[in-house]
Specification:
By secondary structure, the chain is an all-alpha fold. Helices cover 64% and strands 0% of the residues.
């Protein structure tokens, strides 16, 4: 997901999460955690990058 995020989507974690799922086709079990992760993990990563971890630098992958 990180490679997709920084090389192709200008750091957009939400889009990278969805594209990674569509490309990998790697779901073995679906539960509430999978559903929450699919819809909200990218948005949460984006929020924390902006608000909580401003000092972290993402280098070109």
């Amino acid at each position: 997901m990180q490679t997709i995020r920084f090389m192709f989507l200008h750091g957009d974690a939400t889009k990278a999460q969805i594209i990674h799922f569509l490309v990998s086709h790697a779901i073995w079990a679906v539960g509430i955690g999978t559903i929450i992760s699919f819809f909200f993990q990218g948005s949460m990563i984006k929020w924390f990058d902006i608000h909580a971890f401003k000092h972290l630098k993402h280098y070109d992958i």
